Amino acid sequence: MNFIPYGKQNITQDDIDVVVKTLKSDYLTTGPKVKEFEDAIAKFSDVKYCVAVSNGTTALHLASLVLLNKGDKVLTTPNSFLATSNSILYVGAKPIFVDITKDGNIDLDLCEEELKKDSTIKAIYAVAFSGNPLNQGRLKHLRETYKVAILEDCAHAIGAAYNGIKAGSCANSDMSIFSFHPVKHITTAEGGAITTNSKEIYEKLLMLRAHGMVKTPDMKPWEYEMRELGYNYRITDIQCALGLSQLNRLESFIARRKEIAKTYDSAFKGTIVQPLYTFDGNSSYHLYVVLVDFTKINVSKEELFIKLREKGIGIQLHYIPINKQPYYKNLGYGNEHTPVMDKYYEECFSLPMYPSLSDEEQDYVIKTLLEVLNG
Ligand SMILES: *Cc1c(COP(=O)(O)O)cnc(C)c1O
Questions:
Q1: Class assignment of domain 250-373?
Q2: Whose CA is nearest to atom 2 of ligand 1?
Q3: Where is the active site (predicted)?
Q4: In which band, very low, low, confident or very high, does the pLDDT at 1 lie, cut at 50, 70 and 90?
Q5: What average pLDDT does range 238-260 have in this prediction?
Q6: Per-position DSSP letters for 316-335, written without gaps between them
Q7: Quick one: pLDDT at residue 259?
Q8: Segment 38-78, tens digit of pLDDT
Q9: Residues designated as active site
Q10: Is the CB of 133 within 6 Å of ligand 1?
Q11: Would the CB of 84 count as within 6 Å of ligand 1?
Q12: Residue 205 has what pLDDT?
């Protein structure tokens, strides 16, 4: 059996063909495929506007440039990839780490307590962790009551829905972001997108993606104006052609991920392996996270990782608490009261989850994991 990683892209001959076709076309970048991809993402996500960019991190950076000013306070989660809170630091704003709930998402009740204590808090950066959508009722309440800006990091969650409200639809947020890194649901190799329902935000994002430049019909043919300090965060037509082709298969990818999740759920019933949450139809399962109480068994988490790797299985851990990273500790973070996150970090790891994982491979993962854990 080949090595089984925790996540893996799915590339077909159709994907390859559209990439080659784009390479032979007149536009490698800033051509028609970019807008076509943006329109397709917007349609899929039930949202008005989409801006595609070079990766998920630059999507977060542009969103932060629009939402935040220097010194602004932002509530965010320790349970994410570094980029979520790094993007707050990029613009000189200040992340405040809030504990998570048992499902791995930021605790929105604790966010409300913070908002009650400090009315100067500007925004909440929440992550739909593992593909589990954020509680839209709570977001709506916080947004309306405290006039706080909300950014949804949906890097894990394209195709997820909370009571029919799609991830990235920005029904109760100012912006959402996606990532199209190869481990995510669909890939453009590197790539990302920002979605919004605000025309004003959309136009600002377009400008910031391209050096802060504006060109209007009333200008002379050679003229352009730089109005903000922007960046080159463009995505190429080659990447967008791949993204469009991948998007055609997204529904089937998610259906397969859900099938894999249900099989894991039932295999672990009555064992020491506890799914982070069980199937309820909402999550799009970027990750399948499980919890094991290592204090009750004779195998350490480190031994488990090493032994499974020897047996050809690449489990992963999502995530090391961001506030406990050395860079953040140097800024004075790391001692926040986050008991749920701390316990979660002791117990969590992620199992292989990707559409091309075969039934036999999954059975092998389940059998081997339980064997190693039972020592
Ligand atoms: C992957 C990821 C990002 C960053 O996306 P890139 O495309 O790798 O820059 C941001 N947030 C979360 C939650 C992610 O998983």
A1: alpha beta
A2: 155
A3: 184
A4: confident
A5: 98
A6: B-----GGGSHHHHHTT-S-
A7: 98
A8: 999 999 999 999 999 999 999 999 999 999 999 999 999 99
A9: 184
A10: no
A11: yes
A12: 98
Q: Which amino acid is at 168?
A: G
Cβ 183 under 6 angstroms from ligand 1 = no
Separation CA 177–CA 155 (nearest Å):
6
pTM of the model as a whole: 0.98
Please work out whether the CB of residue 127 comes within 6 Å of at least one atom of ligand 1.
yes
Output the pLDDT for position 375: 82
Q: Which CATH architecture has domain 13-247?
A: 3-Layer(aba) Sandwich (3.40)
What are the residue ranges spanned by the domains of the chain? 13-247, 250-373
- Kindly state the average pLDDT of the residues 122-134: 98
Ligand 1 touching residue 57 (CB < 6 A): yes
CA 185 to chain centre: 10
Tell me the pLDDT of the chain averaged across its residues: 98
| Ligand 1 atom at shortest distance from the alpha carbon of 156 | 15
192 SS3 class? strand
Of ligand 1's atoms, which has the minimum distance to the CA of residue 83? 10
Q: Write the CA distances from 354 to 7, 154, 254, integer angstroms.
A: 5, 17, 9
Read off the pLDDT of each residue in 319-334 and give the average, rounded to a whole number.
98
Residue nearest to atom 6 of ligand 1 (CA): 56
Tokens 């204590």 sit at which residue?
117
As a dihedral over the C-alpha atoms of residue 128, residue 202, residue 38, residue 147, rounded to 10 degrees, the angle is 20
Q: Please determine, for residue 374, whether its predicted confidence score (pLDDT) is greater than 90.
A: yes
CA 122 to centroid of ligand 1, rounded, Å: 22
Which ligand 1 atom sits nearest the alpha carbon of residue 184? 1
Mutate to test the pocket of ligand 1, among 54, 64, 81 (most ligand atoms within 8 A of CB): 81
**For residue 10, what pLDDT band results from cuts at 50, 70 and 90?**
very high
